[in-house]
Structures are given as structure tokens and as C-alpha cells.
Structure to design on (348 residues):
């Protein structure tokens, strides 16, 4: 029963309702469910016998399965996939939840605090693991370059990206700088870098250096080299994990073992590649279920991911990872909501 086939006729529609009931029951209780329970609890308007026949078709097509010798059924990865694909709407966070998100993230003092708070908040909303990627320098631009004379013939160079990352470096000067010349140099470098990705700064600064006052050439070159070195040193992508302990909760128990999941979370480069690939698939929220992740350690997990950024340009990802029997509508809504506020934070 493909996505299109699921809307082909009344029988297919009903079987989708049966599948939805099986998924919702298993997510809520972690217990297999039989046809009589579906008929009694979900009021589908048909007899247990009809539901039993629908469940037989769903099992034959690989959407549900019978664990052990139980008379009940549980969803398969394929069943979860169809359930997720058929979600017509995602219930947004309640007004009180949205206000809580705004208050919690609005109290952040810098980018590190924003990322840490976003991870803790998403983990709290979902009861799962939150993975928040720092804004990628590969996709960031230079918002401002500040040059500040310090005591002892030192010059402080403050590098601020358009995603809120701040780097500070100092250089030693041979003599006290001329403040007006330093101000002109700051303007020239900022104008050259305006709108440029950090990865494109070398060419932009080369043009600026060619037009710089010869008396300021040496200082300008030292500043440019330091800025480029600082950017290169920070190109390693970083992620923050929050809520790892949630996976050990009784109601979050994985079918076989938790260790493979924890080991997969430790492989941060591989994990980040997966999340980046998922976020690039769509402008909306991307979901991979079980073996769809193509990571052995996440074979019993699902990953819900989206990008965040500014002006519609994604600069990083935010994700929730939990068992395949997660509450998909709630998780998707939480990931989407926190990403929205993260986007506002990095754009401000």
C-alpha cells in the first residue's frame, strides 16, 4: 500500500486508520495491540473481524508484525514510514509551550548559551536526545570586524560572524597606532568583507590590501592573516548533545540494546554527516526511521531533523533522536518550533 494507494479507496483508507491506531497504541503503551482492542479504543466504525482482516493485509504488506507469540501487532519501520508520510498536519505547540520556548531561549547571552539552551529545551520537550549543530563557518559570513587598541602596544581583533559566533585575537604592535588610520583600516576591511562567506574572505581581503595606504600595509596584512587563521582554526563543525540520559528511561527502552545508540551518538562526524544530508533533503522537517539512517547503531532509532539559519539559508541543523516508536507528530512539532526560534536568534 503506497502513499498514493493509501488514498485509493475506502478499504485502503480504513487500513490506514488501523495502521494509525496500531502506531498510536504502541507509542503510548509499548504493548502489541489486537483487533478487538483497536475496535474498542479507536471507534473505527467496523467490527473486530473487519479490523482483523485489515491487520492481516497490513502484516502481509510489511507494515505491522507479530512479535513473539503475542496475538497483538506492532508497527514495522515500513509502517512508521507510511504513518509519517500520511501526516497531513502537525499540531503546533500550545501557546503556553511557545511562550516557554521564547522565555527560555530569549534569556540566552551569547551563541554558546543559545545552542546549549536549545538542546536542553528540545530534550525536555521530546524526552529524547537533542543534537544541535553550531552554525557552520562554511556557510557563515563576517558581520563585523572590530579593531581595539589595548595597553602595552597590543591590538585586539574581534571577529563577529553573521550567525553570532565571536572570536577574539590579539597582536603585538611596534608602535602606538594612529587612531584615525586604524579607523579607516577597520572600515576598509569591513567593506571588503561585507556579504562574503568566510570561505571567500581571502580574495576579498586581497583586493582590500591592494588599495590600502602603503603606510598601513604591514599592519593590514598582519590583521588579515590573523583573521584568516582564526577562521581556519574554527572550521571544525561542532555539535551539542542534550538529554542522553533520557534514552535510559524505562518508557524509552530500545528493543534490544541501548549501547549501539550511545556509540552512534559518540561518532559525531558520522552523525553530523547524516544530519546535514537529511536537512538538505527538504526545507521542512526530515525524518529517517530505523534502517533508513544507514547507521547500524541507529537501526532501532528514528531521527527527526531540520535546518535553521537566516534569510531562508540554513547554516546548521537541529535534531531529535529516539526510539522508532517515538511520538512523531509531537517530535516534529518540537523540532520545527525550536529551529524557528534558533533561526531568529542567529539572525538578530
Amino acid at each position: 500500500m503506497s502513499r498514493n494507494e493509501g488514498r485509493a479507496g475506502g478499504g485502503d483508507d480504513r487500513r490506514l486508520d488501523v495502521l494509525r491506531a496500531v502506531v498510536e497504541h504502541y507509542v503510548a503503551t509499548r504493548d502489541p495491540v489486537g483487533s478487538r482492542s483497536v475496535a474498542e479504543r479507536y471507534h473505527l466504525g467496523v467490527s473486530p473481524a473487519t479490523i482483523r482482516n485489515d491487520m492481516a493485509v497490513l502484516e502481509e504488506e510489511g507494515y505491522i508484525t507479530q512479535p513473539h507469540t503475542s496475538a497483538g501487532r506492532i508497527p514495522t519501520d515500513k509502517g512508521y514510514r507510511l504513518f509519517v508520510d500520511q501526516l497531513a498536519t502537525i499540531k503546533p505547540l500550545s501557546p503556553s509551550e511557545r511562550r516557554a520556548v521564547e522565555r527560555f531561549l530569549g534569556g540566552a547571552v551569547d551563541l554558546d548559551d543559545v545552542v546549549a539552551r536549545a538542546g536542553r529545551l528540545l530534550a525536555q520537550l521530546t524526552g529524547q536526545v537533542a543534537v544541535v549543530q553550531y552554525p557552520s563557518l562554511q556557510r557563515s559570513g563576517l558581520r563585523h570586524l572590530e579593531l581595539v587598541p589595548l595597553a602595552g602596544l597590543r591590538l585586539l581583533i574581534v571577529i563577529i560572524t553573521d550567525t553570532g559566533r565571536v572570536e577574539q585575537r590579539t597582536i603585538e604592535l611596534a608602535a602606538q597606532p594612529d587612531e584615525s588610520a586604524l579607523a579607516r583600516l577597520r572600515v576598509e576591511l569591513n567593506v571588503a568583507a561585507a556579504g562574503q562567506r568566510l570561505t571567500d574572505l581571502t580574495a576579498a581581503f586581497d583586493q582590500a590590501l591592494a588599495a590600502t595606504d602603503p603606510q598601513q600595509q604591514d599592519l593590514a596584512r598582519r590583521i588579515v592573516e590573523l583573521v584568516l587563521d582564526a577562521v581556519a582554526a574554527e572550521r571544525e563543525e561542532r555539535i551539542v548533545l542534550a538529554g542522553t540520559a533520557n534514552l535510559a528511561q524505562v518508557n524509552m527502552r530500545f528493543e534490544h540494546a541501548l549501547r549501539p545508540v550511545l556509540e552512534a551518538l559518540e561518532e559525531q562526524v558520522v552523525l553530523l554527516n547524516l544530519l546535514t544530508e537529511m536537512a538538505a533533503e527538504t526545507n521542512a522537517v526530515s525524518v529517517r526511521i530505523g534502517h533508513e539512517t544507514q547507521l547500524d547503531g541507529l537501526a532501532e532509532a528514528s531521527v527527526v531533523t531540520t535546518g535553521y539559519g537566516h534569510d531562508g539559508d540554513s547554516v546548521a541543523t537541529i535534531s531529535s533522536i529516539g526510539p522508532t516508536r517515538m511520538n512523531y507528530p509531537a517530535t516534529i512539532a518540537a523540532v520545527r518550533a525550536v529551529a524557528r526560534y534558533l533561526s531568529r536568534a542567529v539572525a538578530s
Q: What stands out?
A: The domain at 95-135+238-347 is CATH 3.30.450.40 (Beta-Lactamase).
